[in-house]
Amino acid sequence: YRRPQAKETLSEFNQTERKAILGSYTKVLFVRDPFHRLIATFLQGMGISPSFSSFVQEVLDSRKEHEAWKPLVSLCQPCLVHYDYVVMFGFLRQELGHLLRRAGLPAGSLLPELTDSQVQWTYRWLSEQMFSELSAQQKQRLSHFYRWDLAAFPFSTSFLSD
């Protein structure tokens, strides 16, 4: 007698099972511009590359997608999971306040001090600097690599959607 192997990922369940499992949860998805994710990954030293351009080339040439730069659509599967809320990085204070109020919690006392405008300005500046290091082919390949993220989420200010 062989015991059936336990299902480990959501995609292994059929639609009815997924609906039953997720039905009682409030599903929140936190999303971040894929180009900003690449910058953060590079700055955290997750690659061994000396420059951002060579790091991007590693990502593009890699046969194995690392979770740090894997497209969000393949990580969070928005076609399988119908999220109740999608929270954009850069608007955390505003959106988390809304979520807490919807949950009936006092938003003001529970929120950490978030400086979204400073974070947005810093990433805008970093994006300009890092994007200018890339070749036209790298820019095109990155836009293609993240095409489903750019289509699924409102990253209209992303350098990759230009």
From TrEMBL:
Keyword Transmembrane found: yes
Membrane protein topology class: Single-pass type II membrane protein
Keywords, sorted A to Z: Carbohydrate metabolism, Glycoprotein, Golgi apparatus, Membrane, Signal-anchor, Transferase, Transmembrane, Transmembrane helix
Compartments, record wording: Golgi apparatus membrane
PANTHER family: CARBOHYDRATE SULFOTRANSFERASE
Family in the record: Belongs to the sulfotransferase 2 family.
Gene Ontology CC annotation, any one: Golgi membrane
Highest taxon, organism lineage: Eukaryota
Chain ranges passing through the membrane: none
This enzyme's EC code(s): 2.8.2.-
Protein name: Carbohydrate sulfotransferase
GO MF annotation terms: sulfotransferase activity
